[in-house]
Every structure is written in C-alpha cells, then in structure tokens.
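Archive maintenance. Older records in this collection stored only the sequence; we are now back-filling the structure field for every entry so that each record is complete. The fields below show one back-filled record exactly as it appears after the update. Entries are processed alphabetically, and Ribonuclease H is next in the queue.

ARCHIVE ENTRY
Title: Ribonuclease H
Organism field: Trifolium pratense
Length field: 87
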Amino acid sequence: MSWMRACIFESSMSILVNGSPTDDFKVGRGLRQGDPLSPFLFLIVAEGLAGMMNKAVDIGKFKGFKINANLHFQMLQFADDTIIMGE
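Back-filled structure field:
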C-alpha cells in the first residue's frame, strides 16, 4: 500500500517551456496520464460500485431498466465508462 500511496500523493513533475524543463513541482493529488496504476484503481472502484448497485437492487432501493420479463439491468460498464440506468 505504501507504494500505491507514493504514486498518488508524492509524485512530482516538470513542464517543458520552449524546450527547457521547469523546476520540479509536487503534484497535489491524482495520477499522471498513462500511469499503470490508473486502470487497477479504476477496477477496484468499479467492482465496488457494481457490488453496491447489485445490493441496492436486491433490497429494493434501486430499480434497474427492464427490457423484457427475463432481462433487467441497472448498469453498463466498459473500459473506463459507467452508465447507470433506472429509477
């Protein structure tokens, strides 16, 4: 977990201005573009969201979209996109 925390909270970067790098500055939060940790963190959150949505449907707190008598859904997920449908 410490390496994950370091990637998110302790990274620094610089910017090229007219071909010359600026001094390093600390990035307050978030992941850099292309960081290999990004998809892993997204999957953790997406799985948690899917579990919470399924539980909400099971206990009657959320009603998904009904296509026919046998096919219901409340959420579609693909890559880094999530669509939630229902009442």
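Update note: The two ends are 37 Å apart (CA to CA). Residues 45-87 form one domain.
Entry marked complete.
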